[in-house]
Known about the structure:
By secondary structure, the chain is mainly beta. It contains 1 helix and 2 strands, in the order E-E-H. A hairpin with a 5-residue loop joins strand 1 and strand 2.
Amino acid sequence: xxxxxxxxxxxxxxxxxxxxxEAEVVPLNQPExxxxxxxxxxxxxQETAR
Length: 50
């Protein structure tokens, strides 16, 4: 099922600028390993991971 994606940014004054026009994309079923964030290493997360 395709999705619609549009990339924009909003500055501090609230002005919107389109970075990339609207495009249809197909989402991945499973993200590639290189796209995943590494585990958090902060003390709080390390404590709850035990």
